[in-house]
Amino acid sequence: MDDERVPLFKKWSYWYALVIGFLAVCIALFYLLTKHFS
Amino acid sequence: MSRPDWFVLALTLLGIIAYGLYKGRATRDLEGYFLSNRSVPWYMVLLGIMGTQASAVTFLSAPGQAYTDGMRFVQYYFGLPLAMVVLCISFVPVFHRLKVFTAYEYLEQRFDGKTRTLTSFLFLLQRGLSTGISISAPSIILSSLLGWNIVWTNIFMGGLLIIYTVTGGAKAVAYTQQLQMIIIFSGMTIAAYIVVHRLPAGVGLSEILHIGGKAGKLNVITTGFQGKKFDWNDRYNLLSGTIGGFFLALSYFGTDQSQVGRYLTARSLTESRIGLLLNGLVKVPMQFLILLLGVMVFAFYKYNPEPIFFNKSQITALEHSKYKDSLAVVTAQYNVLEQRRLGGDPVGDGKEVYKATVRRWLDDIGGESNDTNYIFLRFVTDYLPKGLVGLLIAVIFLAAWGSISATLNSLSSCTIIDFHKRFAPGVSADREYRLSRLYTFFWGAFCVAVAQLAYNLGNSLIEAVNVLGSLFYGVILGIFLVAFYRKRVGGSAVFISAVIVEIGVVVLGILIQKKVVGLSFLWLNVIGAAGVVLLSEILNLTVCRPVPSSPPRRG
Fold this sequence. Notes:
A: 1 helix; B: two-stranded antiparallel ribbon; 23 helices; globular
């Protein structure tokens, strides 16, 4: 069952990197928003 | 509410019930009733996960939270995407491989029966009570603002969904959640459009952000440091949101059957993983947008008269108290001040002084002096056109239904799988199915009864039950972490650790509630989980050494 084909990417680890990377981008953008409008 | 509002509300709610009954009609066995025959595609898993997590209070409170405290509440969700990744690596493959109905079944295979029973019992206790509160909280708000009878509001909020949840099980839950989420997002988008549309010409999103920023509402990222000292009492900051939020999300999505039951319905491991990972991608931006709606409403009231207090029923309570005459004077003065402010005159802190006076009077008569949860709905009822008010009220109901129906299904599955089938075996498949429906109905009635009790006992109980999750989630997560990552630790060590740490966490929770200890409740999840892992490791090395298994006999 663990050998099922991974959608879009070659490995699940790329999916995990995408989720964590996107969170990092969100936090960075939120930080800029906070600074800009404070 | 006007007739068009009632019409839209009734049509939406009846439509959802009919849709649920239609979609769940073919279910006749346990696999279908609790797991939708493991046939659900990834996008329905995603909407199911989101619909289960987002209760009515999410859509009522979050905009009000941003209005009063700013947008820093979004940090509470920063740990969620990280938890989704850990779940996809460790938890979900195991649940799928073992083909379990409930998460707690795995604990018997890994440890023993008593650990499974304890964990499932903690879940039933915590979830049964907190679901009652999740019915009660929006019911109180709606009945206060619209003057509805609280008993009937509770029954409609927590009772009508029982019809399709009992009949159709997980399949009805999954399909209705899909439709509910579409209606909820549409309703919130329309509300946001109307806020911007009703602002003066030339005032757009940029001005809204400037107004919000100037008032300190765009505090999306906060560090929690007061000078050089970290404030452990501060609920929402980058550190507590990421670490505390991670443990909370990991325990909620990984060990709470109401969520585990959603992704176990997926047609494959891949579809479960995709649903969870996409939830990790969309949750933070979605929560940001809901909070931004609160900042929009804040900006709206910069150009329109703001009520002195958003909860109308509390103003009525003051009108029938000793403060009746004083309230009339203060309200008249406040209205004059608002007119001056809208005319462009600087009014300083005058408004806040009047508002604080009203709050003080409410405290004095034993009323509710916090109107945060009423801000968004008051805007909706005061400013949205006829028909749309009904739609937004329907959104509140549907948000509650999506969350409660999934929970009832999970409470029933744990009752029959973790208790009934084990302690009264030999039940036929048909009787199992009929018992499952009966248990779903029982839990629905139980939660509505708890909702009514919560209303009768007042705010103290609601506040106490709101922190129930933090009291239990950490310990339950600790048990699962030991199960997945500490393979040498045996059942007795983890069971004793869980009991000791649970008592400790409850005592700590009481001390926090009584303000003896200064700590945010979010940290209890971390303490509970870490406590079980460490103590079970120590017990395993000392008093609860696992008995080595005897070598296989020859011949």
